Structure formats: structure tokens, C-alpha cells
Amino acid sequence: MPKTAHKPGFATRAIHHAYDPALYHGALNPPVFLTSTFGFDSVQTGADRFAGEAEGFIYSRVGNPTVSILESRLASLEEGEAALATSSGMGAISAVIWSLVGSGDEILADKTLYGCTFGLLEHHIHRFGITARFVDMTNPENLRAAISPRTRMVITESPSNPNMRLADIAVVAEICRQAGALLVVDNTYCTPYLQRPLGLGADIVVHSATKYLGGHGDLIAGAVVASREHIDLIRSTGIKELNGACISAFDAFLVLRGLKTLNLRMDRHCATAARLAHDLEAHPAVEHVFYPGLDSHPQKALAERQMRAMGGMIALELKGGLSAGRAFMDGVGLATRAVSLGDAETLIQHPASMTHATYSPEERAKHGFTDGLIRLSVGLEDYEDIRNDLIGALDQLGGAATATQPVAVRDTVHA
Questions:
Q1: Statement to judge: residues 182 and 215 lie in one domain
Q2: Catalytic-role residue among 73, 196, 211, 387
Q3: Is residue 254 domain-shared with residue 313, that is, in the same domain?
Q4: Active-site residue, 111 included
Q5: Same structural domain, 24 and 88
Q6: Does 272 lie in the same domain as 238?
Q7: What are phi and psi of 82, to 5 degrees?
Q8: To the nearest whole percent, how much of the chain has pLDDT over 70?
Q9: Belongs to which family (predicted)?
Q10: CA 171, 173, 179: angle at the middle one, nearest 5?
């Protein structure tokens, strides 16, 4: 990208950062380097690269030209020093943990997390001599009371998957800094377009790039953004020697394609979700809607302070509980019953039996979401069509009143 007197904007960097077509025969898009290994012009060159004393590629598990462009671009968008692309979101978070936490250390995590992150911490990590405890971080004082000299890492999502709870990232980061613990924030729901945790004091950001960063439901990928020191360690330890969760060059190419429209897609996701959240909240069959932009959300002020806009994810509970929720999800026609999120298509799923099935019923109750919770990833279809599909399915439930009228809501974007 040509040098300018000012820092290019988000969209410009998402399209151009770290790539000069002139270096690749004028190719508009970065080439896909489908190679496992790289040749050296001498034995000494190979030795120097393996020792970290010379720049250059050695093996695509630890570095690839296509992947490097993606990593530089993600670091720029998250405003971090460096980034690491991985084969999945779980590959990203596990690489972070295996690289930076060891036997005898403790991890404190928010009480509600993506199901597989919870499963790793609750059901498996103790086998490696690491303790994991869960804290309700909607009140940072709970973290302050729980953190100890053994706490090496604190993990949170904001908003949380699936019930849209928020953590005050700046306050949590300060508590971690004072205790000497690393703060890891899963920024999958927001993307760097809506929220930048590093700027709020977090040490490490992780993503499931499968979701909004890719945006098209055609890849599996993850990412870590942090200081160069941490990224170098995670790359050489977590990826090279421990979990091996490297991204393929072709998947990196697909994420790069998705980044080009990230800001446009997120604006559309947010605008439609804001209107739908009000429509759903007004329906007589709905007990509660969880969306940070609603006045009923207890952390709306925090969301407005640390997020650019309120995102494209909605959770809701129906007055008829689980049975009504199942009937509602089976009654939709446009929305797709599927896990994942951030795609062009509107997706609807049941966390208790799908993405968060790693929680037992008792654990779900303890960690703050019910068996009847429904998670909705608002897509890019026309608002009226999504609304008619969802409200129509609600109207078909027994005892539901007639259809509510659309609610016009302006989704304010915060700088």
C-alpha cells in the first residue's frame, strides 16, 4: 500500500495493507502459495532462518507468504504489533494457553464462554496441572477478589457467547495488570471494526476467523493478535511444537477476501439486528431479548462506551420455554438452522443442545443461560424478509397474538 501522510482508514487497510501488487507481477489479489516447504540458497541460510537470525520462510506450518499478508493485515486492524493465523478459533485459543500457561498456573475465565472454550477449561485442562476457575466478570470486583499470585491468565468474551453479557475490558485489564496476569479477550462477536480490546488494555485478542472475518461460511480459521514477543512465542511453541494448528494458504486467501468487505457487512449486520431486536422484544410470545442495544440490557451504557455498534448477534427466550423455542426454530423458513455465526445467511440455533452442549444442565444453570435460550446470527438478507420469517414463526406458536408492526430503530454507530 502506498505511503501517505496520514494513517489510512479501517476499510483502506482491510483492502490494501501489507500487499503491493507490483511485487507479484501486478496481481490484484495476493497469490496463494500452495507449498509445504521452502528452499534455501545455502546450508547457512537454512540454519540462520531456523535460529531466527534471518528472515525468510522455512515451512508452511510456521510461515507462508499468503498467510503473512493476512497476519499483517489483522494486526493492523486490531492495532496490535503482530498476529498469528491458525486453522480454527480453538486452535488459536489453545495455542495461546499451551504457550503461555504451565503446570501449577491458574486461569480465571468469565462464567459464560463459547462451549468448546468452556469444555477445554472445565473438563480437560486440569489433566495438565493447570487450574481453571470461573468468575462473573460483569462485575469486575468479582475478578479482583478472585485473582491470586497463581493467576497467569484471564479469559473473557465481550459480548459473551451465547447470552450477550459484557465485561468492562478496560477495568478488567487494569486488574490483570496490577496482578501480573495476561488478559485474553475473544473478539469474535465484534471484530476489530466494532471493538479493539488491545486499545482498552488487553494483552491478547483471539478470533474465530470462521465467523465475521471470513464472512461467507466457506472456511475454518482462527487468529491471535498481541505483542510481537507473544506472537513469536506462540508461533514457535504453540503452533510449531504443540498443537500444530496452522492455517492453510488457501483459507488465508479466503479470509483476506472477507476482510475487504468487513466494514460494509458489519454495518449491515448491526443495522438489521438493531431493528429485529426491538421487533422481537415487542412480540407477545417472547419473554426476553438479549441485545446490547436495547434499553432493557443492563450493560447498554458499557456497550456504547467500548463498542462502535451493537453487533449482529441476538439471543432470546420465549414464554413457552424450551418447547416453544423448538417449535419456533422449526417454524422458520428463511433462517437456516445451523451453528456458527457471522455469515451472509441468517442462522438460528439452540445453544444448550448444539454449540454449548459441553455444559451439563447444572453447568448451564450455574453459568447463566437456560435450556430455552435461542441464538440468532442476523444475516445480510433484506430486513423485511428476515423479520417476516421470524415474526411469522412466532405468530404460529400457540397463544401468540397477531403480528406486531415493524419498529423503526436507528442503530447509532459510535466512534
A1: yes
A2: 211
A3: no
A4: no
A5: yes
A6: no
A7: -155, 165
A8: 94
A9: Belongs to the trans-sulfuration enzymes family. L-methionine gamma-lyase subfamily.
A10: 110
Mean local confidence (pLDDT), 37-60: 96
Task: Return the amino acid letter for 213.
Answer: L
The mean pLDDT value for 104-131 works out to 96
Nine cell digits for residue 128: 495438565
CATH code for the domain in which residue 299 is found: 3.90.1150.10
pLDDT score at 237? 95
Which amino acid is present at 365? A
Do both 213 and 301 map to the same domain?
Answer: no
Which of the 8 DSSP states describes residue 395?
H
Q: Among this protein's residues, is 114 annotated catalytic? A: yes
Alpha-carbon distance of 151 to 96, in angstroms, equals 15
Residue 303 binned pLDDT confidence (cut-offs 50, 70, 90): very high
pLDDT digits (tens, 9 = 90+) for 326-362: 999 999 999 999 999 999 999 999 988 887 877 788 8
Among residues 59, 61, 232, 371, the one annotated as catalytic is 61
Instruction: Tell me which of 110, 168, 186, 251 is the catalytic residue.
Output: 186
What residue numbers bound the domain in which 130 lies?
10-259
Q: State yes or no: is 61 an active-site residue.
A: yes
Average pLDDT, the chain: 93
Instruction: Please indicate, yes or no, whether residues 149 and 243 belong to a single structural domain of this protein.
Output: yes
Q: Is the distance from CB of 214 to CB of 87 less than 8 angstroms?
A: no
Specify whether the CB–CB gap between 223 and 85 falls below 8 A: yes
State whether 59 and 159 are in the same domain.
yes
For residues 311-338, one letter each, b for 16 or more C-beta atoms within 10 angstroms of the residue's C-beta and e for the rest, the string is bbbbbbbbebebebbbbbbebbebbbee
Return the sign of the alpha-carbon dihedral for residues 192, 196, 198, 204.
Answer: negative
The reply to whether 236 and 371 lie within a common domain is no
> Which three-class secondary structure string do you get for 7-37?
CCCHHHHHHHCCCCHHHHCCCCCCCCCCCCE
- Selecting among 13, 73, 110, 114, the annotated active-site residue is 114
Q: Is 211 a catalytic residue?
A: yes
Summarize pLDDT for 400-414 with one digit per residue, the tens.
444 444 444 444 333
Main-chain phi, psi angles of 91, to 5 degrees: -65, -35
Instruction: Report the distance separating Cα 272 and Cα 364, nearest Å.
Output: 29
